[in-house]
Structures are given as structure tokens and as C-alpha cells.
Amino acid sequence: MVERVRSNLNQNTTTFPQVGTFKGWVLNGSNKVGVQLADIDVADKLNHVIVELGHELVYVTSYDPTTGAATCPPWFRQRMGSPANDAFPPDSMVTIDPRWTWWSVAQAVVAGISACQPDLFAVKTTTLTTDVTVRRYLLPADVENILSLKVRLPGSEDRELPVKRYSLDTKAADGNRYLHMAPVGMSGLPVYVTYRADPAPLSPSNPAGTWASTGLPATAEDIPVLWATATLLPAAEAARTQTASIEQSDRARFIQTGSATSVARVWTQQFQARLAQERHALLDTFSARPHFEMNG
Questions:
Q1: Is residue 290 part of a domain?
Q2: Last residue of a domain, one of 66, 98, 130
Q3: pLDDT (tens digit per residue) in 272-296
Q4: What is the CA radius of gyration of the chain?
Q5: Does one domain contain both 127 and 111?
């Protein structure tokens, strides 16, 4: 998703950052004290600059094109809060002074997933077993609402009847969540519970995180991408704010002030439209069924 966002953002620019090749770490004993780079065309661009190594940002003070060694301060790693990337493989591409860093885009994508709530939700299932001696069954801790409740009758795997009298207790004194259900008259019958849960959060520090792990619908994967694009695009206006007495329009004659913000509005409209579309599709399939509440 991060690369899709960066592709969207790069559609709105004609200048791209310089790239090079990572050859390895510069070591002092077992300590990483710098980076070894190659394929850098203009050495002057590596003076006091941020270099992106995959998802880690490092700070380079100077660069020697002869040896390929980049001089770095002691605090050169994990700039801007980016996670360490010790396993970054040699001969991988690095970006010099990136406009849209992997780290900032990943944070925007995670925020986009949060923006999908409460319109979108994860759908999960669990199976209980009836017991004529109890009326309260322990549920998973992530149950937010019950979407359907069915009990399988004995003698046939195809005979499943919906349970229409139950209640969900999410505020029990012991902190657990319970299903209160009227006895069905026989122990040992499987009860299939389909429930609504909050999506599993992704961490921008974990590049291995996937959309599938959130539990949200597979068809909605583009929605956080739209959100992140709309959120990050206005940042292009930050460098165009008025300085001294020079008007923005005089400093940007070809691309007028507000262009990025205007384009961001279009992405926001797409986000809102897609979110509404996925919400309706999800509720059509997994709307909560009417039932009679029990009093515990």
C-alpha cells in the first residue's frame, strides 16, 4: 500500500529525487558508523542530507565518491523516528533526500486504516458448545456486536437454526464478554457465532504488515491508499508559504498556490465515495439480525 501511495503522489511532480546503490555498512568493530554507497552522480547532493535505506532514514554529513564512504554523525540512524533496517541488503536502491519517505507514507496509511472505522469492521466467527446447565457463554475479547447466531441440530450437518433470543454482555464485572442465551434443551450442540470486531491495527514500524491481517474486506484495500494520498498531498504547499515580502504567486508562476490542496480534495472525495460503497456492501452482507434481548 505504501508504494501505491507514493506512486499516486509522484503523479503530481516532474522532479524526482536522486537515487544510488547501497553497498553495505561502514563498521567500527561491530558498530555501524556509516554507509557505503555507489552510483551517485552528483557528490555535492550528499552534504548534510537524509538518505532512505528501505524504511530507515539515515543522516549523511558528506560523501567521498572515490571510496564510496559516507561520513555520518554518531546519531545518523533512525532519523524522524523511522525503524532500524539492519537487514537492508547490499546492492539495493537508496533515495537521496526523498520527498515522500516510506516512513511518513506508512504512518499515513495506518491513519487511513483507522479512518475506515466505524464504517468498516472485521467479520469473525467462533464456535461455542451448548450446555443445559449454563445460560452464559464466554466470548472472545474482541467481540463488538453479534451479527448472527446459529445452532446445529443433531442428526444433520445441514440443519442450522438461528437463535432469536440472546443478549451480549460487554461490560461484565470480570472484564470478559459473555453471550446470554436461552437453553436449547440439549448439551453438546455446536453454536456458530458470527460477530463484528475492530480491525487489527497495523504498525508503521512493521514493513511486513499486510491488509489481510487487519480483517477488513479485501475489496477495500484501496481506501487507506486514497486517504493517505489526500492527507500527504497538501504538504507540498508547506514550502510555498510566504517568506519575507515575496508573494506566493510570484515565486510559483507555473504551478499556482493551492494546486496541491485542490488535487487533495479530489482524492478526499474518492476516499469518501469508496468508503460509503464498501460500507453498504458490508452491511448488506453482515447486518445484525433482529433478536429478542435477554436480561442476563
A1: no
A2: 98
A3: 999 999 999 999 988 766 666 665 4
A4: 27
A5: no
